[in-house]
């Protein structure tokens, strides 16, 4: 039988392709890219100041995981997913992220909890000042990932990150990147469900209440998924109306 080494494996040097891959991942995770967004490989190479070869390699890795869709003429697109795929993604996120929140409540250091509380406050500030932009989407990602790092499980973190590569662009439809009338935008900002769920999470972390932390995160994901489905149905109905004579 094989033996388990007590020494961590040595990390290989990061290549240009690794750096491009990390940049693309961050764009997906933080909602800088939305479903149906199309990217030219040449434009991406110019933006990152690299040749086409590392861009192709990085894109191939993300396409293999389903996070990007390779198109003809040297372009990629953020794919749409079906209702069944979205439901499956939501269920897996609730399972994994709920467990990460549970572990974080038990394992997080005081410094990590302080960081999470600060990120939650920053998210609320951005809901007030920048609702309808990519900023609160990115702030939401920063908060959640600080929580999941505090769980102290690299394997669980890798699984969550893989799921978020598909979820990140879709979260735009919850936090409101689409433009809205100013009055409706302010109302959605003030009453956004993530405010209460994040506050419940912070209280659970301070109390070291693992089950309450897990519930706050899973409810945040569940309610967001319902709003995203409703938004998708609205867009589909609008498209049908535009096609009718």
Report on this structure.
With 245 residues, this protein is mainly alpha-helical. The chain is built from ten helices and three strands. A three-stranded antiparallel β-sheet has the order 1-3-2. 33% of the residues are buried.
Oligomer: single chain
- Biggest sheet strand line-up: 1-3-2
| Beta strand % | under 5%
Mean pLDDT: 87
Identify the notable features of this structure and list them briefly:
245 residues, mainly alpha, 3-stranded antiparallel β-sheet, 10 helices, 73% helix, 4% strand, globular
Layout of strands and helices, then pairs:
Layout: H1 16-29, E1 38-40, H2 41-48, H3 52-64, E2 69-71, E3 75-77, H4 83-107, H5 110-130, H6 134-149, H7 154-175, H8 182-191, H9 193-207, H10 210-243
Antiparallel strand pairs: 1-3, 2-3
Question: What would a concise description of this structure say?
Answer:
The protein has 245 residues and is mainly α. α4 runs parallel beside α9, α6 (134-149) packs antiparallel against α7 (154-175) and α9 runs antiparallel to α10. A three-stranded antiparallel sheet has the order 1-3-2.
């Amino acid at each position: 039988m094989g033996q388990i080494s007590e020494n961590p494996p040595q990390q290989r040097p990061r290549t240009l392709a690794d750096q491009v891959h990390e940049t693309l991942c961050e764009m997906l995770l933080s909602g800088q890219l939305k479903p149906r967004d199309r990217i030219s490989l040449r434009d991406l190479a110019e933006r990152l100041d690299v040749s086409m070869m590392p861009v192709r390699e990085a894109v191939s890795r993300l396409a293999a995981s389903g996070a990007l869709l390779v198109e003809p003429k040297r372009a990629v697109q953020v794919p749409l997913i079906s209702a069944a795929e979205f439901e499956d993604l939501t269920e897996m996120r609730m399972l994994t992220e709920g467990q990460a929140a549970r572990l974080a409540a038990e394992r997080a250091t005081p410094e990590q909890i302080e960081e999470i509380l600060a990120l939650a406050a920053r998210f609320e500030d951005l809901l007030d000042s920048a609702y309808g932009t990519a900023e609160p989407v990115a702030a939401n990602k920063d908060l959640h990932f600080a929580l999941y790092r505090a769980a102290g499980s690299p394997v669980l973190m890798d699984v969550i990150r893989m799921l978020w590569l598909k979820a990140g662009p879709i979260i735009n439809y919850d936090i409101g990147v689409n433009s809205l009338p100013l009055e409706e935008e302010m109302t959605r900002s003030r009453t956004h469900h993530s405010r209460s769920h994040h506050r419940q999470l912070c209280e659970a972390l301070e109390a070291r209440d693992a089950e309450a932390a897990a519930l706050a995160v899973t409810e945040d994901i569940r309610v967001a998924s319902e709003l995203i489905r409703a938004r998708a149905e609205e867009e589909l109905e609008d498209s049908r109306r535009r096609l009718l004579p």
